[in-house]
User: Fold this.
Amino acid sequence: MRLHSFLAVCLFFVTAIVFGQPKKDNGYVYTVDLTKVVNDRVYVELSPPAINKSEVTFYLPKIVPGTYAIADYGRYVQEFAAYDKKGNKLPVEKVDENTWKIKDATKLKKISYWVDDTFDTSVTGPEIFWPAGTNIEEKKNFVINTSGFFGYFDGFKEVPFQFNVVRSKDLYGSTGLIPAQTASPLSALKLEKGNNDKDRVVDVYKAVDYDQLVDSPLMYAKPDTAVIKVANTEVLIGSYSPNNKVTAKEIAESIKEVLMAQKEYLGGKLPVDKYAFIFYFTDKPVLSYGALEHSYSSMYYMPEMTIEQMNQQLRDFAAHEFFHIVTPLTVHSEEIENFDFNNPKMSQHLWMYEGVTEYFAGNVQVKYGLIEPEQYLEVLQEKMITSDQFIDDVPFTEISKFTLDKYHDQYYNVYQKGALIGLCLDIKLRQLSKGKYGLQNLLMDLSNKFGKNKAFKDDELFAEITKMTYPEIGEFFNRYVKGSEPLPLEEVFTAVGVRYKEEEKFKDYTLGIGNENIGVTQIDNKPRLQIAKTDNMNEMGQALGFKEGDVLVKMNGETLPDLGPEFPKFIQQQMMSLPSRKTMSYTVLRTDSTGQAKEVELSAPVTQVELSRKHIVEFNPTASAEQLALRDAWLKP
Assistant:
């Protein structure tokens, strides 16, 4: 939960800062001063391009690429004002959360406003995905997702942008952007002089248009960086760990093998010269965390742990995000190329942008020996099991196209079923080509055909791929992606000598609840587990007598730890103790009919119950020579 509320800022301080910079190419010139934080806000000023109409509309984004969810960044902007060259205010009308109309716009010379961060500011409206958010911690850390700080004028999105970041000398900016000018003295800007000027410098960045600006996050913190050379690409790792539990050097050592494998997977040369991994680690309890891709960087928001605790997760995250240099950077539709930040039209190809990227992230690791083939089957099994929690009778293209509204609750399935679509497509291509051509070859061919500056038409991609490959691939798309038939998992696995069984029954001990029964709520600003639903609860759970809304407090007399690194170990210990226990018990916080929450004790005898294991996959020891050859093409370089 965001812990901060908006606070007023005195007018004196606003007017005491005067930014100015000669405009070049009639573009935007923004300045943000990180050395002047007031009530957890920073001041932003814009010297705008020349406006030739009497009224102009200014936007902050409603949504940004890669998130597939509404953000409404304008909610975090306060004291928005427009001025003429004499410093007189121009009339401004706030139209909605993200939109301001400015009158007498031909006189416009300056816009200013204050920005709150999304990490700890409480406002009404949608939650912003953490890696797409902003952070303001004076003298410590600034997460600058540019969509949260800088806006654009209607009709002026395709002109150049410059933004100046005033910072203290002891902070460093991690970004995929190459600075136009770094650590310049303050004389480059017309700033009010102060006693600490010798400790303040300005970094100057440029973007060709608003799309590139929003595609370029930054993080300022005390320097903790490392650099890896991957083929032709310089890869920067920038890290902020508040308690120094992990360093950029450790992260670099952890992900280097994956990046080197990806280089080989992509043919030995990468489509970017510089790339940045930007890691923000939090020591606060988290409900969710993750990463957000950009063309030349990726931003991570993760719980602070040691490198040993998160090593494989880091590698999985890094592998996924880095593969986005293929799609959507070099393979994308017109909806991505001409992204509308305030009236978005979504592509129907999330199966490729996110699903194939997720498939590659796992496949590259098994191909180059970073995980064992048996581990890889477990990864695929987990995706099949998780995918079962989502609808499967709607074409995946429809779910993709309407992911912002009627299918918003289905989005997470792009990393599950989307990756399984990639799996099936890869093996189908290798079957048809006798192992010589797979999904990675197809994406490279699509990259060569289209590239960074040429978009495909959304409705024509399937026909294009069919023309480039085989008629059977067109049939696959029609049946399983444009159509709603279940994926042919058994057929696909059999082709590579993997036995597949949809479900089998067995008896075992259980804690009484499974992932499908659990949700997360906030109690005293901490995330806590609660019973979200009792449907399909096993016999043990039924005997315990759980009710929807129960908040879990203790398990077998032991207080549940916070939802952090120690939680999985606690659950594992509880599971291991079951065979020697006679009774399973819980303490839950239950709300009665009057709204009062009271602790309730639940207990039941420990017994084995009938459970089901779904999507069983194992290598067939009697696989044919043809199946083994196709398996090698699938799992070996």
User: Anything to note?
Assistant: Residues 1-24 have pLDDT under 50 and may be disordered.
